[in-house]
Amino acid sequence: MPVARAIVMRCLPCLILLGAVGGIVAGWAQGQAAAADLLSPPAAGGRVRACTAQGPGFFFIPGTDTCLRIGGYLWGEGYYNTYSAFPPNYDKTYSIATGALIIDTRTDTEYGVVRSYFETRYQWRTSDPWSDGPNTPTGKQSAQLDLRDIYVQFAGFTVGHTQSFFDFYGNANVFGTDAATIGDDTRLNLIAYTYELSRSLSTTLALEDAADRQSGILARGPSLFGPGDYQAGVGAPDVVANLKSQASWGNLQLSGALHQVSATTLDTPLATVNGGWGYALQAGAMFNLPAFGEGDTLYLQAAYAKGATSYLGLQDPSGAYDPPDAFLGAFGEVHKVSGWSATASFLHNWNERWSSALFGGYAAYDFNNTGVQASYGASGGTNLNVGGYLAFTPVKQFTIALQYDYNSNAATNYRLTPFSPAQSSVGAQQVLLFISRDF
Q1: What burial letters (b/e) apply to 261-273, b meaning 16+ CB within 10 Å?
Q2: Residues 6 or more apart from 216 whose CB is under 8 A from it?
Q3: What is the pTM of this model?
Q4: Which residues pair with 354 in a beta bridge?
Q5: Is 173 helix (H, G, I), strand (E, B) or coil?
Q6: How far apart are alpha carbons 170 and 227 in whole angstroms?
């Protein structure tokens, strides 16, 4: 018996392989009709039914009135970048692998559709952007989890984590995790109410967590008080509103935001100075251009901000040219920074398989104080960003793209001081090989 058992155990992998081959042969012998039965959708009376009222891909969860759609995407990204302000040992090439999961549920009720939406990205990156590795300078690890959208919608309300209702363009025609163009593209926690004025016109009022909108407040005289951020913390959420029109020709949106500006005083750290409220205004339009090609679009967007610089959507990988919301004087006076930005993007579909896009933006900001200029070596700054891509889609929901973009930052009226950027201007180039599969 031990000998026989040993023979059986040694041949067990062979038996499993033979069984698998036999199963495959038997399945093939059943013919094309059986294969067609396996691939056909369940019958209408089966356990899983399509939920056509909510759109393609939705099905009823068995035993409930809730419709569910599960989807996602996989990305492979290879980057090459250069930045004139960074040390030569920083990574010029790195890669990112991304797997995303989307869960969308909807239930019809007497008060309308209750929707819950969840989108998360699981990423492995070999370096942070413009750095010497994934652990510097931001302390991130190679494996990262990005909770992109988590929200519930009911009776006009949206509650959770999602795109700011101030945003319009939001990098619509830009590929990749790290690539971006000028213009606000922010996801944060919020509560909002949207009212449908008509079938094509709606308005939204939102309270959005200001933690992701803090550009900081710096001392006007850093030689006496240091260059640290004297922000007192979040005292109130940002108030955001928009008016949006949708028509056959495209979309139009007007946005506004109020942002609280406050700081800890320089001489009495326990006291807080209320700098009032900053604000931002934005207008954006998207035009459908079927005369150029099916699915072609043109985006135009412009924004102005004072005391709320995060809404300008500046791109500064070096971090040396990021303007704060305001500067704080020794006697508690607050000097707000103002600025504007403009963005344009054109997407053209050459045919069913080939497409391309051109995008770019320009921004300028002003410190609005001569004392600040003497300390920080500039009266303000400018930001320029241009780029484009060529994409090939050999089969549906599978895309291969090559993208290039250039970004520059410059200090206005620059002079070297202990607290100024090391250079009057810097430039960056980035090349991205992007491969994606949606499902």
Answers
A1: bbbbbbeeeeebb
A2: 229, 231, 324, 325
A3: 0.85
A4: 392
A5: coil
A6: 32
At 298-323, the pLDDT tens digits run 999 999 999 999 999 999 988 889 99
> How many whole angstroms separate alpha carbon 385 and alpha carbon 360?
5
CA torsion sign for 147, 134, 184, 387 is negative
DSSP structure string for 266-322 = SS-TT-EEEEEEEEEEEEEEEEE-TTT-TT-EEEEEEEEEES-GGGG----TTSTT-
pLDDT digit string (tens) for 267-295? 666 667 777 899 999 999 999 999 999 99
* One CATH from 1.10.10, 2.40.160, 3.60.70, 1.10.4200 for 156-438: 2.40.160
* 153: amino acid identity, one letter: Q
- 80, 93 contact by CB (below 8 A): yes
Alpha helices in 103-261 (DSSP H): 222-225
The two beta strands, 334-336 and 338-349, are unpaired
CA distance 272 to 262: 7
Place of tokens 């959420």: 237
Does the N-terminal peptide bond of residue 137 adopt cis geometry, omega within 30 degrees of 0?
yes
CA 137 to chain centre: 21
334-336 and 66-83 beta bridge pairing: unpaired
Which two structure tokens, joined as six digits, stand for 16? 């499993």
Strand 326-328 to 217-219 pairing: parallel
Q: Residue length, the chain?
A: 439
pLDDT at 137 over 70: no
Neighbours of 380 (CB within 10 A): 21
Q: pLDDT-based confidence at 135, cuts 50/70/90? A: low
